[in-house]
Amino acid sequence: MSFSSKIGNWFLQNKRDLPWRNTKNPYPIWLSEVMLQQTRVSQALPFYNKFIKRFPEICDLAAAEESEVLKLWQGLGYYSRGRNLHKAAKKICHELNGKFPTKFKELKKLPGVGEYTASAVASFAYQTPVAVVDGNVFRVVARFLGISTPINSTEGEKIFKEKAQLLLNKKQPDLHNQAIMEFGALHCTPKKPNCLFCPLQQECVAFQLNRVNELPVKIKKTKVKDLFIHYFIFENEAKDLLIQKRDFDGIWKNLYVFPSLEYTKKPTLEAVKQDFKSNFGWNAKIVRFDKKPKHHLLSHRKIQAYFWKVETPEKQFYLLKKQFNLQTTCLQTIKDYPVPVLIQNFIKAYISSS
Ligand code: SF4
């Protein structure tokens, strides 16, 4: 029996019943694949259900404001996926008559759609014989064929793509691709793969050579950098607050945060107070909410955040608003803005203490 028949049989007996698996409609398939990038199924599933309920058709998504899309995306991380999802939906609805591209090459022209997503949509929705290569597929192929080339090297990407394509069942690419991804997610797992009861055991090079724990090989590339952020909660007498849209490239683009000072090295408190004065223009009394920082981890940033309360005279409040292009909100309305989880957690704590 071939590799593909074995994992196909395994899949039919072991697959999870997921909503995007019971359709050939490219919209839910695409939505789920974008959400599943670097995200576990259990984490993505509630977000998928929320999106499909609110935007049953792609043009419903295209018609929404970006801030609503980001609000629904809040908590899923990697927000560029949400922004690109919205851009792609607009492109399909406004430039392609609401019709999803059917060709692999055309799919790749959509914002945020790379090789992986295009392969998944093309094979699941249209049975295009193109192999999907995600983290699970890299692992299964590396172990099954005993390949030591790092999966995140240029050479590795080329080799694994070729090998995955050779293993592909061209007659049933949808079943094959779903099967190998699910097999990697549930059976040939990163730690403690179930080799003893594996249908591939006889031919699996890594198992036969006792190299399962060595493969796949990955080069450590991204250095996680420290980031120290001091957020300032400017509050006037009426208990209004000021927030700012991060409308520039970098982390959390287009999400809302409190005005802040950011540092790559841990500053002294005196330095923060000095910088506050020179940045925001007056010698305010600033009080930290908590002496301990809030820790937050992103894929390439290790954040320590501090929150400061600033009782703000009316005149300063409106000067700041004008100078930094800020928006006025309050504890009742701030919940409607898309914000990073770090800010959301602070707001929850702030509301319950107010
Ligand atoms: S034998 Fe082990 S390493 Fe090889 S494919 Fe099966 S689960 Fe993966």
From TrEMBL:
Name of the molecule in the record: Adenine DNA glycosylase
UniProt gene name: mutY
Organism: Psychroflexus maritimus
This protein's record includes keyword Phosphoprotein: no
Keywords: 4Fe-4S, DNA damage, DNA repair, Glycosidase, Hydrolase, Iron, Iron-sulfur, Metal-binding
SMART domains in alphabetical order: ENDO3c
Described purpose of this protein according to its UniProt entry: Adenine glycosylase active on G-A mispairs. MutY also corrects error-prone DNA synthesis past GO lesions which are due to the oxidatively damaged form of guanine: 7,8-dihydro-8-oxoguanine (8-oxo-dGTP).
Pfam families found in the cross-reference section: HHH, HhH-GPD, NUDIX_4
Family classification: Belongs to the Nth/MutY family.
Essential cofactor(s): [4Fe-4S] cluster
Ranges annotated as spanning the membrane: none
Cofactor, free-text remark: Binds 1 [4Fe-4S] cluster.
NCBIfam families noted in UniProt: mutY
